[in-house]
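Try this one yourself first.
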């Protein structure tokens, strides 16, 4: 399998996983089928669209290839059928599925940015953007606080995964090793945050009443 095919299949996989998380979130909010599809589309394609627009990458991936829209539609409708035929997916299932999508999209966003010869710092930003932007839009539509603003690590795994991918480039390893290695870092840190509640230090500014209590 050549690098182009691997990139394409990885992108479709990430789209499918994020479409599933979008459909699950819409289901938690008791949306109708149209709402499920809308949330699935923005979750799966929002980050990549924003990345491509800023980079001037035209046409945007899903506009130039109908396969993306097909994958999102099938993933969203398949999720609805699966849940109706079995049982609702637990919150933990939503978070784990989101972690897989986060890992795939972070690496893909970094790859696209590097292909456009942007500086390393910008490549990391585009990797994070591709990973989290769709989820941020999803959560805002569903009237939830975006995961990126929660105390658990969310953007940080993307940063580490993007840096890992960039750091592996000089080693001239096989493409799939670079991709899987960077994805593993994102997954390990994000799943650690989910299961063990890893978090960054919080900044809390005391208000006047709290200051008086001290």
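Now uncover the answer:
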């Amino acid at each position: 399998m050549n690098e182009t095919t691997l990139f394409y299949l990885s992108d479709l996989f990430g789209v499918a996983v994020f479409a599933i998380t979008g459909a699950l979130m819409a289901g938690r909010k008791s949306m109708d089928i149209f709402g499920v599809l809308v949330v699935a589309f923005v979750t799966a394609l929002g980050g990549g669209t924003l990345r491509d627009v800023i980079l001037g990458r035209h046409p945007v991936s899903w506009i130039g290839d109908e396969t993306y829209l097909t994958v999102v539609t099938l993933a969203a409708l398949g999720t609805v059928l699966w849940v109706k035929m079995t049982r609702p997916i637990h919150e933990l299932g939503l978070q784990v599925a989101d972690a897989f999508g986060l890992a795939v999209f972070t690496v893909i966003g970094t790859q696209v940015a590097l292909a456009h010869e942007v500086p390393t710092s910008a490549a990391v930003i585009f990797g994070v953007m591709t990973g989290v932007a769709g989820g941020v839009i999803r959560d805002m539509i569903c009237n939830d606080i975006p995961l990126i603003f929660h105390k658990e690590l969310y953007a940080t795994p993307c940063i580490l995964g993007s840096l890992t991918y960039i750091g592996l480039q000089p080693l001239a390893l096989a493409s799939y090793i670079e991709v899987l290695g960077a994805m593993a870092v994102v997954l390990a840190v994000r799943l650690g945050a989910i299961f063990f509640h890893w978090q960054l230090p919080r900044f809390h500014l005391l208000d006047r009443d709290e200051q008086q209590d001290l």
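Discussion: The first helix runs from residue 3 to 28. The radius of gyration is 18 Å.
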